[in-house]
Amino acid sequence: MDVDLVVVGSGFFGLTVAERMANEHGARVLVVERRSHIGGNAYSEDEPTTGIEVHRYGAHLFHTSNERVWEYATRFTAFTGYVHRVYTTYRGEVFPMPINLGTINQFFRSAYGPDAARALVREQAAELDAVLAGREPANLDEKGVSLIGRPLYEAFIRDYTAKQWQTDPTELPASVISRLPVRYTYDNRYFNDAHEGLPVDGYTAWLERLADHPRIEVRLDTDFFDTSQPVHKDAVVGNVPVVYTGPVDRYFDYAEGELGWRTLDFEQEVLDVGDFQGTPVMNYADLAVPYTRIHEFRHFHPEREYPDDRTVIMREFSRFADRGDEPYYPVNTPADRARLLAYRGLTEREHDERGVYFGGRLGTYQYLDMHMAIGSALSMVDNRLAPRVRV
Ligand code: FAD
Ligand code: NA
After folding, report:
1. Helix 370-380 vs helix 12-23: angle between axes, to the nearest 10 degrees?
2. How far apart are the first and last CA of the chain?
3. Most ligand 1 atoms within 8 A of CB, residue of 16, 329, 361, 365 to mutate
4. Which atom of ligand 1 is the closest one to the Cα of 223?
5. How remote is the CA of residue 73 from the centroid of ligand 2, in Å?
6. What are the tens digits of pLDDT across the range 7-61?
7. In 215-359, which ranges are continuous DSSP H helix?
8. DSSP state, 313?
């Protein structure tokens, strides 16, 4: 095979590796992608009847405080001034999220200042102190109450989390939430990063520019494990260095068992109204509503000229993934962590003996924001690939 590097997967991790290795280090890179489009989960496309950009695998908001990643990203796209904000519907009333002074005062029909609100939440969060008597919360329910008190926890966290996990929070490990930040100001800006925005001409244009180099070839509809096509695992590994960004358990034929993931189901609809909900993302906190949230994509790009009599919405449902479902969020039970450790042993050997590099969210079994995937790809190129891949 006449290439210096094979990259499996064309998400942000794989494309960043391909771009750097081809452009900065002169490597000829072959990218194989199982799907019929590039970009991994950040891929977006225009809904054909309205022209509204839809993020096919869930809404993607770009934000970072990593200056290197920001500088790198802006070589390939400009960003709009979009600032992310989220609201939630609870029992027929809309509240700002994350929980902030506005949420608290609306919920308790009060006019607390920061100190009074802090004191109230502290008092409510002490409810379980006697019950716990010094021990750690035994499940997510106890943890939630002990972090922010029962009223706010039960309204805004409990049932939403139950829907995300399809599991009653008394059955969920406390580790599912590490903290529940409450803001004692009216600031409901969702992210706190130095840089935030959406790609001016869309995610796919950005992703295509990463791949647009004479030394990069992308083969779509090509599964690395499909032995009927030439660039499959057995034909490549050991002969050419490989960066693998697919699921790590799949690479080893599930030898150490399957790693657990949650997946999402999306229900997209074009409506004959100009504006359905007045905001990009509305969460639904009530258990009786089966979806967790609704995205309305026109609001991600208020600067664009979209039709004023039609809109695209997407309802999001959450559940445990079966094999064959898209893996979205690691479940990360103790059993998963034990399996992951076993896979780490295998990936180290595969790296040392056969030149395979595991990266990205699927290859390392961890949730990565886009800026983290890009940052970790840049580090892999500098520290591990550039010194080792011979051109
Ligand atoms: P992926 O994008 O998953 O790319 C992996 C690629 O490998 C895929 O294209 C896959 O088809 C391919 N592949 C797998 N197996 C094979 C095989 N056998 N052969 C060939 N190809 C294969 N990040 C943010 O910063 N902001 C957000 O708001 C945000 N929202 C998100 C919402 C959801 C629902 C999800 C799931 C993720 C979100 N992310 C967000 C994270 C973002 O999607 C990831 O950071 C990014 O996808 C990571 O890129 P990656 O290359 O590691 O993985
Ligand atoms: Na998101």
Report:
1. 40
2. 13
3. 361
4. 19
5. 18
6. 999 999 999 999 999 999 999 999 999 999 999 999 999 999 999 999 999 999 9
7. 233-236, 248-251, 334-354
8. E
Which residues lie below 8 Å from residue 113, measured CB to CB, with a gap of 6+?
A: none
* Residue whose CA is at the smallest distance from ligand 1 atom 52: 360
Is this prediction's pTM over 0.90? yes
- Judged by average pLDDT, the poorest of 173-187, 244-258, 304-318 is 173-187
Amino acid identity at 218 = V
Cβ within 8 Å of residue 41, ≥6 positions away:
11, 57, 58, 60, 326, 328
The pLDDT score that the predictor gives to residue 212 is 98
Whole-number Å distance between alpha carbons of 32 and 287: 41
Is pLDDT of 1 > 80? no
Can you spell out the DSSP letters for 104-140?
A: HHHHTT----HHHHHHHHHHHHTTTHHHHTTSPPSSH
CA-43 nearest atom, ligand 1:
2
ipTM: 0.97
- Which amino acid, residue 292? T
Q: Buried b / exposed e across 174-195, counting CB within 10 Å, b at 16+?
A: bebbeebebbbeeebebbeeeb
Single-letter residue type at 138? A
Q: What is the pLDDT of residues 297-312, one digit of tens each?
A: 999 999 999 999 999 9
- What span, in angstroms and rounded, lies between the C-alpha atoms of 83 and 174? 31
Has 361 been annotated as catalytic?
no
Which amino acid makes up residue 272? D
**Would you call 5 helix, strand, or coil by DSSP?**
strand
Residue nearest to atom 7 of ligand 1 (CA): 9
